[in-house]
Amino acid sequence: MTMLLRSALYVPASNSRALQKAPTLDCDSVILDLEDAVAPSAKVSAREAALEFAGSGALGERMLVIRANALDTPWGRDDIPAIAYSGAHGVLVPKINSASDVEEVDKLLEGAPPEFAMWAMIETCAAIMALAEIAAAARSSRLSGFVSGTNDLLKEMRAAPMPGRPNLIAMLALTVAAGRASGLTVLDGVYNDFGDHAGFAAECRQGRDFGFDGKTLIHPGQITAANECYGPSTEQLADARNIVAAFARSENAEAGVIEVDGKMVERLHLSIAEETIARAERIHERERQTSGS
């Protein structure tokens, strides 16, 4: 079953209290951070803490990813192979600029469990210009996901954060398109002002409408809104069930286009409807497991 990734919370691996709290939170995924959130003097101890957490299985069946330090740092080449055998589901690698970077990471993951995933941060101008070749590297590597690093991208562009992200729209759309072309999971970047609930909700809706699978988060207070936004609404689920039921009727068995509730609906909409229902079922199962019922 495909893992839910509506909400992926960054947790500093150097923060023991945050690590203890992580299993109690309702996020779909946790990304233990060894990079931005960890001071240079704490890099090694943070790695050890992340490996211990991953080995404990405290997160259950939810996806656990560890963000390593970049390849060109003193810690990255030690982080990546250690994470591969930690019990985590995958590694998130920052500053991926080319297909050759993907290949280099893949070599460092040699011998890891077959299902172990590599995610790449798309956060540099070079990565944007090389999106097609980076995504295509998934055909011959463990690469299975893109994560937008909008803060670093803005910094490198010498651009300012703007409401609605008009200066990032092209890059966000290209990231989703390149990811989809190679069958990758694609997660949106973080929203820094965790006290701005309306702004965060608006950015979640924007990311969802762009086609992202979910959003990366910096604060537990953002989890509920992300989960709600990236899950189908009651109305969307009802529409999906109506479409599936309509195509299931014997008179529509061979039809390519039919009318449902006054709208023309094609078989591509049937596929979307089936995925919407499947996603709702995964969310229901996740909630059932969380509640213990």
Percent strand equals 15-25%
Please name the CATH topology of the largest domain: TIM Barrel
Q: Which CATH architecture of the largest domain is right? A: Alpha-Beta Barrel
Provide the spatial order of strands within the biggest beta sheet. Answer: 1-2-3-4-5-6-7-8
Helicity, as a percent range: 40-55%
Structural class: alpha/beta
- Taking all Cα atoms into account, the compactness measure Rg is 20 Å
Number of domains: 2
For the sheet with most strands, the description reads: 8 strands, parallel, barrel
**CATH class value of the largest domain:** Alpha Beta
Poorly predicted tracts of residues: none
Summarize the helix and strand pattern as letters.
EHEHEHEHEHHEHHEHEHHEEH
List keywords for this structure.
about 290 residues; alpha/beta; TIM Barrel; 2 domains; eight-stranded parallel beta barrel; two-stranded antiparallel ribbon; about 45% helix; globular; Aldolase/citrate-lyase_domain; magnesium
SSE blueprint:
Elements: E1 7-12, H1 16-21, E2 29-33, H2 43-56, E3 63-67, H3 76-84, E4 90-93, H4 99-108, E5 117-122, H5 125-129, H6 131-136, E6 143-148, H7 150-157, H8 169-181, E7 185-188, H9 197-210, E8 214-217, H10 223-229, H11 234-248, E9 257-260, E10 263-266, H12 267-291
Parallel strand pairs: 1-2, 1-8, 2-3, 3-4, 4-5, 5-6, 6-7, 7-8
Antiparallel strand pairs: 9-10
What does this structure look like?
The chain contains twelve helices and ten strands. It is α/β, with parallel strands linked by helices. The strands form two sheets. The protein has an eight-stranded parallel beta barrel, surrounded by six helices. Strands 9-10 form a two-stranded antiparallel sheet. The protein starts with 6 loop residues before the first strand and ends with a helix.
